Amino acid sequence: MLHYIIKRLLLMIPTLLGVAVLIFVLMRVVPGDVVEARYLTQGSQFLSQDLMNIERKKLGLDQPIWKQFTSWMGGLARLDFGLSMWTGAPITEEIKLRFELSLQLAIMATVVATLLAIPLGIIAAVKQDTWVDYAVRIFSIAGLAMPSFWLGILMILAMLILFKWLPPMVYTPFWVNPWENLAQLIWPALAVGYRYSAVATRMMRSAMLEVLREDYIRTARAKGLWLKLILTRHALKNAMLPVITVIGLEFAFLMGGLVVTEQVFNLNGLGMLFVEAISHRDYTLTQALVLIVASVFIFVNFLTDIAYAWLDPRIRYR
Amino acid sequence: MKRLMGILAVAASALLAFPLQAQTPRYGGDLVFPVPSEPPSYDGHREETFGLIHPLAPFYNTLLRVDPNDPGGTKPYPSLAESWTVSADGRTYNFKLRRGVKFHDGSAMTSKDVKASYDKIIFPPAGVGSSRKGQYAVVEAVEAPDAYTVRFKLKYASGSFIASLLSPYNFIYSADILAKDMHWYEKNIMGTGPFTLVEHVKGSHVLGKKNPDYWDKGKPYLDGFRAIFIRSSSAQVAAVRGERAHIQFRGFTPADRDSLKAALGDKITVQESAWDCILLVAINHEKKPFDDKRVRRALTLALDRHQASTALSRIAIVKSVAGVQVPGTPFATPPEELNKLAGYWTDIDKSRAESRRLLKEAGVPEGFSFTFTNRGIPMPYEPLAVWMIDQWRQVGLNVKQEVIEPAAYYGTIRKGDAQVFMDFQCGYIVEPDLDMYKFLSADRNPANYGRYTDRVLDDLYDKQSRATNVEERKKLIRAFEKRLLDEEAHYLMTLQWHRIIPHSSKVKGWQVTPSHYLNNTLDVVWLTQ
Amino acid sequence: MAASKETLEGLAQAESPRARWLQAVLDFTWQRPLGAIGAVIIVVMVLVALTAHWLAPFEALATDYGAMLAAPSAQHWLGTDAYGRDVYSRMIFGSRTALIVGLGASFIGATLGALIGVASAYFGGRIDLIVQRIMDVLISFPLIILALAVVAILGTGLENVILAIAIPMIPRCARVVRSSALAVREMPYVDAARAAGFRDSRIVLRHMLPNVMAPYLIMLTAFLGQAILLEASLSFLGLGVQEPVAAWGLMLRGAAVEFAETAPWMAFFPGLAISLAVFAFNLFGDSLRDALDPRLRTQ
């Protein structure tokens, strides 16, 4: 087992390195740089080329590409993300508040998704091919079909008309005012959680169906639903793995992928920061963000792999 | 003459200020306002965004400022300089500084601080960036003959020099700090302004509190302010609507204004003004068939600006039909005269017929297709583009829109591949020299993206710049305008931007101006409760 | 009910290929009514897109500044937008954009993904290892970020949007197809073909590709809905197709949000169109997946 874990850990390194190289190259292929983004904004009639050269030099953008890359890698090796090219402040400082928000929203949305998916999946499986099953499937597929920004707009509009509710101005951290914090995040969490419950519901349904086919549960069929559920509980543990995997991967995705939802609900999270960083051509910040989001993803992947291997020893030897 | 003008302006504005201040200002309260973008660094000399002015201007003073009660936003008003004189040849300006001004660190502000600040702006040492260096090309030297006098020596007399000192970006910094570190002000805030910094939380807000030692005794009225960074415009509106913020200083859309007014009624006061920003259509003279002035004139003749003014002002932040000066300002062409220019006619059918005739004459076939390149900013770039593309469709042109991300936009435009594209002009003050510089021949002005050379136009510019007689100058500006927009149609004007500030009725002492860079010192702003 | 099923089966008894095809459709309809509903909606959507010129009462680009932001009425069934353009007509024309982007992006994404997956599985060894690492890298990239970067590099516009959406799909499809292809590769006839000295390209194209058609089709239909949704998101962010082209995501942007309170029809109907289209593709895709992949049947 230890051998397998080490092997998987080592495999993460080339992937992360690849992500780093890819984002580094992508950012430099995208036309424009941070200096142009800052100074070529208004037609800049009095702009001098000197100014732009000075700024580029200050940021090290006049260095050869390989040198820029090695110095970035050198910083990363010391766990130093460097300074934002746009604001000049340390990247950890830029990200801190946004990371908190995104993490909390991802957790809340995952909780919502799980709370929806597990009971719905079980009900759909138990009542397979009845109208209940169809209703559950339509409900979850509909969630996947609605554009999140549209759902957000409708939710905000409905709440404005019904309760005079207005979206918050700024993010209140949980430890500052838990009540206000939850009041702010519950709506986007519901919108996002509903959407992401769809895949998990489906997985849950099929896991449950598989379990229901086991012989001893079939025999219990006649003895009523409750007994069946109690019997199922044990068998379900193994079958739950794909469900947990899906939930885990979605959690990883939620950390950086909520660009549009954040925009609609005015949340200053990692997604919005991403868009801002790319539009400012803030190379260092974009690179750091991509690495963070990719690391979360890769790490969650790693955990699920380990979990699989732990439950199914054959995997370790593949 | 000029000396007199300066002094008169001060006197006049002092008088004008009186009736507005008739209500006794109330002390106390925190002003809360959303700011749509966050300052990149703190150095006003280096940045070019209102995102720096709105949250940071209250911490600083400038040498001169624009009279906070002037709705035109052009009258010079004393700030750190109490008064000034101009030499007979117009090449030496002496500014008398106010005494007893202290920086937030307790040190006294003297002429050496002003000199150091302006030296940083005009003659930045190697490795220091200054955004506005080019704007002060006329300055030969800045001197500090005694502790409370600052002298600017010019290479030649310039009618717009005082206007250039009104720039809200030219914060006066401490000379001692600059001597130690020219970059200190990029990461720190320390001025002489009416407020002192409490904190800046990245991605959230800037907090300022009243400076008890402010030199202008009795001010500011506010206890403090909170500038909150909110990118989404609907969230900014929601903040005002929920009475969690008092005002947003940049401007809201007509839809926002109407919904705020409908929801809050008398609790909302709306101030509006023509906005000293305009989107222009640049036409690349190096691309066929746009090298032909008949084609360019056809493009402008196809636009029904008068209908657009009524229609688009309902959905976008544009309104007035304008020439090269903001309508209603001293040098603007009156409407009846402006309507004689091509593309400004009130009879649109005649105008479109002429447009079609010119296209035919120039050999441009019906259904001719070209690309209009636009900058990826929704408001008001997108509505104006949709409008123009539809107008051009009505004279038989098939136009496709290509949108380029803001950060890559001017880099792409500078390569010279675009045919017809959006360009932007925006100023902190309405002043012909500053506003018309944009249209000079490409060799004199690198920001001329039409890539043309027109010596007649250059000549008219220089003449109006040196004209001392107002009527004479007006005439020259008219001639410049006619050549630029009608005869040669080098550039097309869309509609003047329109600034709409619906704010809480509790906010008093703040006057809207044509510029969203002005009146953000907040020293005269107060709250009724 | 049972009787009708027998009738249906009876109908399809004849052995002509046409009848077999008919039987497959009927079986599908019978066993998976949800999938059939999805298919019907898709067919309607395709018909609407093809006949947009006859169906739409107004031209997609026709502005009318006298009727800006007009509420739904006899003349404008679903109201007008900020430029007085007919929302109903623009929705009808918008179905074209949605279908072109949806089909184009998912076809390119799934096909390239399938080719890479099969090749990677066939060649195995070091090539497989390297290709898989590259796919890992692409998958770890957040989807929307990759699309953002591609649009930033290539620019906006229909073709670029299709590419921007297709690229992130490639690794996802490659991964699934590869695992199916690995199983096929172990089959004796692939070894036989190799032993017979067939060229690699021939073996991949003639023997392996047809055997991974099921996962390929499953991925393709799963991508369709996603592509339409992603196009709408990109357009909403201003990075998709551009005005004045009629597109659903574009219709939800700008004025639609600003006037959501006073002119809600502008945002409501195009959003409904997107939801319905994606819903239909997902329903159909889900059922197709159940039908095509026996191993996944229970899922």
Give an account of the 3D structure.
The complex is a heterotrimer of chains A (318), B (529) and C (299). Chain A is an all-alpha fold and 318 residues long. Chain A has 14 helices and no strands. The two termini of chain A are 12 Å apart. The mean pLDDT of chain A is 83. With 529 residues, chain B is of the alpha+beta class. Chain B has helices at 2-20, 50-56, 111-122, 161-165, 175-180, 184-187, 233-241, 254-264, 293-301, 305-312, 335-338, 348-361, 381-393, 406-414, 432-436, 455-466, 470-487; strands at 30-35, 64-66, 76-78, 81-86, 92-97, 139-146, 149-154, 195-201, 205-210, 224-229, 268-283, 318-321, 368-375, 397-404, 420-426, 491-504, 507-508, 526-527. A 6-stranded mixed beta sheet of chain B has the order 12-16-11-15-13-14. Chain B has a 4-stranded mixed beta sheet with strand order 1-10-9-8. In chain B, a hairpin with a 3-residue loop joins β8 and β9. Chain B is globular and about 70 Å long. Chain C has 14 helices and no strands. Chain C has helices spanning 2-11, 17-31, 33-50, 52-55, 87-123, 125-140, 143-154, 158-185, 188-195, 200-211, 213-236, 248-251, 255-258, 265-292. Classes of the chains: A mainly alpha (318), B alpha+beta (529), C mainly alpha (299). The interface between A and B is large, with 45 and 56 residues.
